[in-house]
Amino acid sequence: MNHDSENLRRAIALGEEAGRRGNRPFGAVLVAADGTVVAEGRNEVATSGVVTAHAELTALGAAGPAAAGATVYASGEPCPMCSAALVWAGVARIVFAAAEADFSAIIGGHPRFALGCAAVVAASDAEIAVSGPHLGDEALVPFRRYVETVEETA
Fold first, then answer.
1. Which percentage of the chain shows pLDDT scores above 90?
2. Where do runs of H (alpha helix) occur along the chain?
3. 49 HSE (CA, 13 A, CB side)
4. CA 81 to CA 123: how far, in whole Å?
5. How far is CA 68 from CA 24, 38, 147, in A?
6. Cβ atoms of 96 and 79 closer than 8 Å
7. How do beta strands 27-31 and 37-42 pair?
């Protein structure tokens, strides 16, 4: 889990950056099978006005065909839209830091889905390993900081 932890921490740092820019604090890193970082992404929904500009999708857009066979590291459990896109992109693994139930309890927001990342992947015929949540409370720090920032500016 050493490289996994390293890459998850980078995804969390990207989430922190997204939060500082006024977006929800999500980040993602795509890593090729040889360990090379292929692409990174931050949530850009608020700053771009594009509702699909989630961290995983911005990373997939930057990676292009290089996403096939890669591992995606996400600061938060990918939503159903992103999970499906990761299946379509052909990633080999999805590793996430914070579980949806845990970060949603902090940042709230609607709509919410009862369908988690692993369930979306399992509903496909793709063979993709899903692992998470990881890093415990460390993974939730950006979400708490984001809420504090939003409350301060309100």
1. 90
2. 2-20, 45-48, 55-63, 80-89, 100-107, 117-122, 141-153
3. 0
4. 13
5. 27, 11, 35
6. no
7. antiparallel
Which positions are annotated as active-site residues?
Answer: 56
What is the chain's Cα-based Rg? Answer: 14
Identity of the residue numbered 153: T
Phi, psi of 149 (to 5 degrees): -65, -45
pTM over 0.85? The answer is yes
Residue keyed to tokens 């931050």 = 42
Residue 121: both structure tokens together: 């992947």
What does the pLDDT read at residue 56?
98
Give strand pairing partners of 74.
28, 96
3-state secondary structure of 75: strand
Please name the amino acid found at residue 152: E
